[in-house]
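U., I forgot to send this yesterday:
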Amino acid sequence: MQEELRYFFMYKERMAVTNDVIIQFMDFKGKRLVRATVQDLNTTTNQKLKEDARTQWEQIKKADTLEQK
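Result:
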């Protein structure tokens, strides 16, 4: 049985000045938004966030990048 997701992928955007890609997740259980760069996701100690991001990686990779104005 697959474990339930806590962090749901919302969108990704590219910051105009730094050119960093920001990925946004919604944590419905904790009632908050989580915004992180790919580097942040790789170094976080939040294992559930890492697992949920890996589970949704194909969707994240294929999502259009919103350009920050």
